Amino acid sequence: MPGPLIEANWGDTVVVHLINALQDNGTSFHFHGVRQNYTSQMDGVPSITQCPLAPGQKMTYTWIASQYGTSWYHSHYAIQSSEGVFGPMIIHGPHAAPFDKEAGMIVLQDWNHQTVSSMYDAAQDGKVGGPRVLDNGLINGMNTWGPDGAANQTGKRFTMNFDHGKSYLLRLVNTAIQSTFKFYIDGHKFTVISTDFVPIKPYVTNILNINIGQRYNIIVHADQPIGDYWMRADNQRACAAITQGLDIKGIVHYTGGPMSTPTSSGYNYTTACVDEPYASLVPIVALNAMAANKEIDETVVVALNAQNLYRWYLDGTTFQSQFDDPTLYGILKNGSVPNYSGDLAIEVPELGEWVYIVIESPIPLPHPIHLHGHDFFVLGQGRGTYNAATSPASNLVNPPRRDVALLPAAGYLVLAFVTDNPGVWLMHCHIGWHTSMGFALQIIENLPNIRSTIGDTCMVTNVCDAWNNYAGLDSTTGIGNENSTTNGTTSNSNAGTNGRQIMFDSGV
Question: What is the C-alpha to C-alpha distance for residues 399 and 322, in angstroms, rounded to an integer?
Fold first, then answer.
């Protein structure tokens, strides 16, 4: 980890061939933050835009790089990405400030010696479950375990070399399952020039707050005395716990220095789960938001279901979907949206309308919210209850734009987008456990015209036919011989050889 880099230029056609060589697992690729303009079938979300790709099957994703910057691709099958099915992605384009050298990707993640799939059962268990404590974090797949200098320390640090006086472009992405990081290099400042896929007016800071799914391009100035410095990605325990959360470190060596273990000291800061200040995130290409044509209001809570499992609820509904009957597949088959997502399958039929999404949570836990198919405008974000009279979404003049923003603990988030991309688009919390426990909804945008945007409907059908055959289901109905549906919880089909799972509370 991470997987191989996908690299392209702004405007390129990107073609990715995915072969599922797993023996007993589905998979998919989602290209995080890519708008998939009029190519919803390439968004790679099992149960939403496709069935999972069955073992032994192949699928080709083709899309236009209409944005540029830094991102990542990952499986969207259950929580498979956090087992390592992900990699970095660079779309080259203009930069908001000059630099001397491109230093490459800095991929941040949390990590555990026990698999996250095995931890999921404990996380959702209403008797003994709840938030998980992970073991460690990684920088570009690397870190140590155990104290420095200990004879039994394992692993190694990521290292990077600087030439004194030069400036370096670093591309950061947070791929964690639950963790927020404060990223910095001891003694150094840097200039932030983009957030997600949006170039911004440069600003200077010494610590960068980066939440799950977010990306930043920064320029680091190698202007400190020649020596060795810690590169740190400090986990913010107020969001989620990591045992070795303050020892997620790499090393920056200056050319001509001792090339040894650093003795530099970290910055002092207040531990917090926050985004970068939104007043600092000013898009270079100025776009204004407009008044809402439609408002979607969701209040987030967590509760136990009838099976004593934790589930996240949006306005009283926990998101459900089925791998064998994704929304796009249903639209192509009969022009209708499958009904198992209930109120969380939200139709926005008209193009050219402004949609506001207001999410509130009384729970003192933050959530990184990601919307597929769009960059959104961040109109409001704060603690407490949202009230249009006292905390209006009034930031309509060139507000920040991105595709992941933080819903603050016990707070609210107000997002806006214009309907200009027919398709089926997932919006979800990017904490892996939460998505699989139902913290998601889907927006069905311009339903009457979705089918006309799908150039190769056979691909969608063929992937589902292969999956249903693998899972022991009837490819025309998606129903197994027995026990293929339950009361809205995890469902196992006994018709297949291994009783394979076909339905999650979220399944995405």
Answer: 36
